[in-house]
Amino acid sequence: MKKLPVLVSGIAIVISILSVLYIKQSSELVYIDVSRVLDGYTRTKIVRAEFEKKAELLNSNVDSLVANWREEIKAYEKDRVSMSKKELELKQQLLSNKQQQINSYQQAIQKQIQEEDQKSTQTVLNDINDYVKEYGEQHGYRIIFGASGGGNIMFASEGSDLTEEVINGLNLEFEALPE
Amino acid sequence: MRYSLIFILIIAALSSCGHPQRFNTEEELVNFIQENSPFNNTKIVNGYEFQLEYRPSDLLVAQHLNGRATNDSIIAALRKQYNKQLYFNLSISKHQKELLSVVPNSMQEFSRLNQTLSFGMSNKVHLYSKQKDTIELLDYNYPRLYGMSRATSMMFVFPNDFDALKDDYINFSIEDLGIQTGEIRFKIPTSLIKNQPTLVFN
After folding, report:
1. Sheet bearing B125-129, strands edge to edge
2. Closest CA to A119 of B177, B167, B44
3. Percent of chain A at pLDDT above 70?
4. Cβ–Cβ of B184/A118 closer than 8 Å?
């Protein structure tokens, strides 16, 4: 029966130590360098490579259409001397229509490339945001700053930088995901 | 005497852990799901709100029974039938409106998005385990509500694959639907499925 107060005191001491540690950790100011996370995350490279491949293919379609149109212009310049007035008008109309079509196509392709770029960047950002949120919750941080190198965090001690830990955790999780 | 009381309380607390919660009415269960984040998760990306809800199979049983009186054997048979699948409700909205009401800027874009929502979601939504095992989509249902709803809602049905449920979570991912949100991923704890809440039918 005499052991009970000792036991209760022991439990109270352990709880106090744990609370102090928890409060210390949750009130700690930490940050991650977003550009380093983007560079270090394996999926960024994969998504970037996929996007560049897609953009190259789309641009090459436009390039071949433009090259084809230039060939037609050259042929027109060469043959125009032998053409009648009506033939000239018709050919000019045809070439002008084709140029307009190519311009519209070029604009549509540029828009598509821009959308693909945004899509792939957003996919990577979603992963990072999800991971940082989960990491913060698991480690009891109240706030995690995101430094982007633009001077929003001027100084932080080495221990406050979670960048490497986040990169490693993100990559570990990604390796377990299907590509 | 005091120690035995504490011991009984600890045993009771431990034994209650891991047991599925039981609800007396469908409304109680629906409210519980809507208020608890593992069952109901929301993500907002570029102004689009994605809400994923896991539906326990007893809700499907209740929907099947539609308030009709029944007996234990019928309930057991229905539970067996509906437990073979996993059910997820996905809602996507912007400014509390359906996607088809806010996304398309032209007839072409409307038609493309409508095609994707009606027939192409099986290529856009994936469920897979932490260990890269994909759980094949069985079916999905997209009821068109012609702008009458506050979100585009769909129901996805996957087989209840016990092997994939060995991990601590499974991933539910939605590829970009042409709305520049990138791929959206929800982590669903498997404990949620293994110990899903149930309804008291009788």
Report:
1. B134-135, B125-129, B169-174, B184-189
2. B177
3. 89
4. no
